[in-house]
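hey so i finally got around to running the thing on that chain from the lab meeting. sorry it took forever, my laptop kept dying and i had to restart like 3 times. anyway pasting the input first so we r on the same page abt which one it is
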Amino acid sequence: MTEESILIAQLSNAKTKEKAFKELIALYKERLYWHIRKIVISHDDADDVLQNTFIKIFKNIDKFNEQSKLFSWMYRIATNESITFINKRAKERKLDIDDYQQELSSNLAEDEFFTGEEIQLILQKAIATLPQKQRLVFNMKYFDDLKYEEISEILETSVGALKASYFHAVKKIESYIKEISN
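ok and heres what got predicted. didnt touch it at all, straight out
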């Protein structure tokens, strides 16, 4: 039995569920936080979405069918929770989702939790100009170093479509950086 299947078995057992869930949080909290943070941008929002993600995981762990890896399943939940969150925030502010993402990235420099250098800020602003799907694919591939097969499982999209999205994202980011450098 793999470590993951042991954890899943413990999560399915009422006697060991709470302890196993604490272990699950310890194992994946930071990784999921940074994935969410790249989508929602704000530290406080990322904390809220992360908490909602773990609540949803806890409530639905019995529905996990082990056709995918546990982490991929949790990543999908975190991605969906993040997208739902930013869509809701954009709607509240009566903004298009892309305009809302632009607004978030322009506030990044004032974020006390953002510790990046100027080049990182430029990269984040460039990423914010991407359509949502390209932004997700780029972040997962570039920052999270996920394989296309893993991203395919998380986003439920073909590997070919993901490769095309990543290629277009890279070209747009390069173009953005060249444009502001001149």
